[in-house]
Amino acid sequence: MKFSVIRSASPYNIILGRSGLRELRAIPSTLHAMMKFPTPRGIATLVTRATTVLECRKREEEQLLTEDEDELTDKTTPLGKEKVVPSTEEVWVHPAHRDQPVTIGT
């Protein structure tokens, strides 16, 4: 498994895709905010802090409200002037490290 280290203040310690979870043989549970995976010494259990999860949910709700407001203003675009949305988007995890963009599929 390949890892990319990004210097940033982030609520996430690691971002794993399906293939990474499969390779670790991990069982994630978003409902319980935990993940279990086998190790040579037995089953390891990772549990997140509830305050971090609640903070992320609050920020997500704020972002969704902002996006809803943007959609209302976007609906007034004249015909033939539709926006072209790219299939991927580059974002920066931390503004202090603009040399480390992360590409996300939209």
Automatic annotation (TrEMBL):
Residues 64-89 are annotated as: Disordered. PANTHER family: GAG-PRO-LIKE PROTEIN, OS08G0508500 PROTEIN. This is Reverse transcriptase domain-containing protein.
